[in-house]
Amino acid sequence: MSLILGLLLGLAALAGLGVVLSRDPRRQVMAMAANGLALTLLFFALQAPDVALSELTVGTAATPLLFLVTLAAVRMNRVRQRK
Amino acid sequence: MSVLPWLVAAWLFGVGVYGVATSRNFIHLIGCLSVCQSSTYVLLLSLGYRWKAVAPIFYDHPPGTLAVDPVVQALVLTDIVVGATITALLLAMALRVDAKHGTLDPQELRPLQGEGH
Amino acid sequence: MSPRTRLALLCLAGACLTVPIWKVAQALPPFGAPTGAYGPAVNALGPPLRHVSNMVSAVNFDFRGFDTLGEEFMLLCAVTGAVLLLRGTRGESLADKAGIIPGRPRERRADATILICRIFGPLTLVFGLYMALHATVTPGGGFQGGVVAASGLLMVYLGEGYETWRKLVRSRVLDVMEAGGALLFAMAGLSPMLTGAAFMQNVLPLGAFKDMLSGGLMLVENVGVGFAVAGGFAMLFLEFMEETRALKSETQE
Amino acid sequence: MLTQLIPLVVVGPMAIAAALLALAHVLPRYVPDVIAIATALGLSAFCGLLGAYALNHGPLTYWFGGWTPGRGVVLGIGFGVDPASAALAAFVGLLFAAAFVFAWGYFDEVHAHFHVLMLLFLAAMVGFCLTRDLFNLFVWFEVMSVSAFALTAYQLETPSLSGALNFTVTNSVAAFMMLGGVGLIYARAGVLDFEALGKVVAGAGHDPVIAGAFCLLAGALMIKGAILPFHFWLSDAHAVAPSPVSVIFSGAMVSVGLFALLKLALQVFGASADSRFLMHGLFIGLGCATSVVGGLMAWGQRHLKRMLAFSTIAHLGIMLIAVATLSATGVAGFLFYAVGHGLVKGALFMIMGILLATKASVDELDLKGLGKDIWPAGIAMGLGGLLLGGGPLGALDTGTRLVHAAAIAIGPLATAAIVLGSALTGAAVLRATGRIFLNLGPDPGDEAEAPSQKDQEKADRPLWLMLAPCLLLLLLAIVPVDGAKLIVARMAGVLASPRSADGAPPLPGTSLVLPCLSIGLAIIIALLDLFRERLPRPLVSATAGGTQIIFRGLKVLHSGLVGDYVVWIVIGLATFSIAFAFH
Fold it and tell me: Which pLDDT score is estimated for B115?
């Protein structure tokens, strides 16, 4: 059991680093979804199902979606400004 | 192994702050802020964990079996809501800043300093 | 400061902090060791006193229900602020159709997508309702159920397209749903005070252990949180999506 | 019976805000304004009543959910209504009422969203003052921050909207640090109630976990209290926030942050030698540095809102010196100072709103000599400047004298910093008043074109409607409150030890010398600045050279970049840990 927890903690640390190092916002959204998934697995291993469900819905689905829509709106602004 | 979660929490906070300090795009910066916040999730939940303990949901196993700390989980639930609200507000602000200034790079967005008298 | 000096200062300060962080990590109780009596006390008192099996919901909606009330109004605050920011300067120049980025081909939705979304859209809504209603029994609660229900609404966008989604998801309905949910939570807290009990004291009949309707006042609060969160997140998705609409001028071309 | 109604203080405004949001579309035009003013005044009166009741019968305690701690472990969340917290909550309610009157008709097109956000801001601040649970303190800290973020970004046309982003990011990092501190102390104590935490901390002796928790909590509250080196966000936030919101930021939010630091240092970390060492050593140094840097930056500003923001930072440094002494005199001085400063700074920010509404600018050089037609605002601004500089009347003066009495024990450095801080801020405001309303000072010539943003707030509001709350606040600021020194001393005593029933700690005599010194210095600096060209040439070039070097250095530090601000936060935490190394 402690091996799985150790691995998941390491995975969470790496996923966090992945989000920070992916400088391009579009790629960062994918990294954030992966980070949300890594945290969800860690929370399930830490016997916290409520928090894992919440992290899954918010951290992996809702927040990356908001990022994607913001990026789409920003790109549309740029196209309009260039006109 | 006994100090790994605390170090991972400190690592996530440090990486998040590094991301915010060196970011050249506000949307990337907001992503790094959420990494900085995930350090508090890891710290709090690891504090509540106990070896050989089950989840604090006494549906499958009878009440009284050794369970992890539910108070910490309630705190992290509130914290996840905090994260969602701050991210939503920051993204809305970033959209407005982009619509007005046409750029999302903090370097170019420095507020004008009204100095000199 | 120039980026290089900023990075140098950050590394210097980080180096200074590594020693204290290590000392604190050593002094903290080892991972997995019991910490304090609050958690075990809640685990021991939850089932007998409140007939609920989900201790996290017991803490969230009863022992420390006041925190969740604050959290609920924080969400209300953020959604109002975000909506204000986005809707404030949009003006009337936007058309009802989704914006198109020139040069990108616009494929029609595949039939498979439409079919899957028509099946899983309502299914996600029902699953969200299930999670919100079984808060006191199984993992999940008003908050998680609300977010699942809000993302269930997005299935409509994925399957049917932007115009149908905008017609189906009314911002006025979401506004009332969100404020109504928060108001229901506040009233659920205030009403026990009318009977002389403390704020948010569980005065309703507690129901049977492991039964869906157990937990008395906790269920009412859960429904309030479920409505507020579903309305709040759906409103966020709607307002952010409104930013991607096409300009009226673009649709005339 | 009174204790039964304590939750209404917080849940009342929140329920009204939710109802306003739900009915926003159907309410006629001015109904939200009236409801908001009534709520704020009612809340202020009720808090005052609670404070008076608590003064005679000892601090009241209210347990939510009926979870009174009987089984040894504190299960529920409690409110600890001691007289000092209730008095501060009453002051916050009053300031909100004045801000609502000032904001009458300010926002017409958006349905009541401003009032919803402000009522939530009010409820969060009152909850922040009254709670005795550490995580509940974090929740109210967060609700306060989120409503403040939404309110700063409310003004969509301001040029420096990125100031709202800087404000949001820095205060969010503060929230994460605070939660880290809550986690650490929960790891050691396993409980979240202040009193129970205090017992555990007393028994723990020298413990890195408790020291770490104190560093994180103090750091977070000092970010909210805008203390050096965490103060950078405040001037950006003020430059972008609408005027009624700035009245609350500088008037109440920042001083409530320091009040929470005081409450934690007294009730939770009172017995830990580490935190006492940090308070008496590093924090007093930070207070002095903040006071001087804030004063210098305020004196160098031409954007009036930024000038008042840096003046707030300077006075927060002085309040931190009072808090860090942890003596009864210091605490009593802090309470007077927070209320006095809040009243004066609220009035000054309302004058900024008047200038924005009538003159469409807050740039001192652009407004030179244009203030003739709104001369009452000039009188109010002059009076505000005199009070800030150390004028010998009202709550701010009593507070300054008590802080001086408490700071004497620390050493001449603290006293000099306090005098210099208030003198510089008073001089800045007096100079601006002289230039705008009396047309004094050199004609700007080429400097006038220096880049300063064009700002505009809704213009068609009557002048008397904006001036009435401002004059009310100033009137309250000059009411002599020396008689209340005994009551406030008892409040300070109860705050330090809620359980003990001993009488009020004796307050030493306070001299008038130092405040008069600082107001004299303020007037001299202002006059020197206004009549610069009449002075002999070598004297001017010498002082000009000196100030140029200082300002170039300070301007580089106040860069407006959120990356710098976050690095400064980490540097601040590093200095805390280095200070511990000497312990």
Answer: 41
